[in-house]
Amino acid sequence: GENVEQHPSTLSVQEGDSAVIKCTYSDSASNYFPWYKQELGKGPQLIIDIRSNVGEKKDQRIAVTLNKTAKHFSLHITETQPEDSAVYFCAASSKGFQKLVFGTGTRLLVSP
Amino acid sequence: DVKVTQSSRYLVKRTGEKVFLECVQDMDHENMFWYRQDPGLGLRLIYFSYDVKMKEKGDIPEGYSVSREKKERFSLILESASTNQTSMYLCASPPANKVGTEAFFGQGTRLTVV
Fold first, then answer.
1. What is the DSSP letter of B85?
2. pLDDT tens sequence across A94-112
3. Most exposed of A12, A22, B62, B70 (fewest Cβ within 10 Å)?
4. Which of A51, A97, A101, A106 to mutate to test the interface with B (most CBs of B within 10 A)?
């Protein structure tokens, strides 16, 4: 089955810096790659996703890139702000949400 | 604006107790999921349901069962709670058959078994 690895487990940056979180997946059939943000005391919330027919997707300060050949995808956050501090999860699926396999999470801390 | 509600934020139960975790969604979705979240392990799927009275095992179903008597409610049951079931439990509900559509999560239930 699918296996998703996520790095780093913790990431500390200064406000205004960029942050990059990387994930690798094992199943070449995976075609959907969402990223979730979990703030303290809340459930995960989808922030951006990408499908396998696209190499990059941007939404304001957030971007995701996908390299299908290398089987890895990354989340890029530019001009980080303290409210970006949260745990971020990547995930991969080949057959919809019920086959979604999550990474182990990255705790991002943005210091003012 | 509430979409997925879990009945308890925090629970403390004793070893051997039968524990019910409740999840309700107001989006009329067929699909509902139960995950547990542990540090360093991410989210792992316990059970899911794609219709009333239907259920399927996820990756870690041992020690758990589920009930889906009504479309809006999906219950996770720990038949005899054990300390290794101390965890954060998350319920999610995505629309059916729509890859790429957001699944809404509840706020989580932090269960401690003593």
1. G
2. 877 767 899 999 999 999 9
3. B62
4. A97
